[in-house]
Amino acid sequence: MKTILLDDFLLDQDFYISEAEAGKIFVYPTDTIYGIGWIHTPENVEKIFEIKHRDEKKTFSIIAPSFERIQKNYPQADIAKMKEQLNEYHGVTYIFDYTKPGVRIIKHPFQQFVEALEKPFITTSCNISGEQVVIDIKNIPEEIATKVDYIIDGGIGWGKPSVLIDFVSNKVIER
Q1: Do 124 and 37 touch, CB atoms closer than 8 A?
Q2: What is the per-residue pLDDT across 110-147, written as a single tens digit (0 to 9) for each?
Q3: At what angle do helices 13-21 and 110-117 cross, to 10 degrees?
């Protein structure tokens, strides 16, 4: 595991894009808490379930490269409404279909990386399932830190998980 400051990570973004494409796993800051994620591969999905001690029935969310990409996959998505909701809340996960992962656009510089990557980035909180969320890299559980490839230090996070905007039931769920 290697720790990189967020600014250095963004300056060398092309290198980290190639690392992501090679299946590397990242811990990174978001607009809410620290996340753990990767480009989807079957091996990495198994690895994350193992690292987090997560129930395999629970799906992950995806950080989308853009609102347009969301609309391509979910034609019913109302981009104007989604942008309004993103401005209204500290962090948002959109749900369009209960059989598919939630979708995020994050209000954080890490979003620039996902945009440049041009691929959905699987994401979940950087904690052992059921334990406290991580808002400072100093608090990343050792059993996670030793099993990821990169930790991106973006300072102290907000500390509150994203709000779920459920378009299926038309509900807002604060966690």
Answers
A1: yes
A2: 999 999 999 989 898 999 888 889 999 999 999 999 99
A3: 60
- What phi and psi, each to the nearest 5 degrees, are found at residue 88? -75, -35
List, in sequence order, the alpha helices (H) in the chain.
Answer: 6-11, 13-21, 42-52, 67-73, 79-88, 110-117, 142-145
Burial group, residue 2, by CB count within 10 angstroms (0-12, 13-18, 19+): exposed
- Output the pTM of the full model: 0.89
Instruction: Report pLDDT digits (tens) over 22-63.
Output: 999 999 999 989 999 998 777 777 888 888 888 777 778 899
The three-class DSSP label of residue 130 is coil
* Torsion angle (degrees, nearest 10) of CA 37, 96, 99, 40: -20
Helix or strand or coil: residue 123?
A: strand
Q: Which residues pair with 95 in a beta bridge?
A: 166
- When computed from its CA atoms, the radius of gyration of the chain, rounded to whole angstroms, is 15
Torsion of CA 72, 81, 95, 62, to 10 degrees: 60
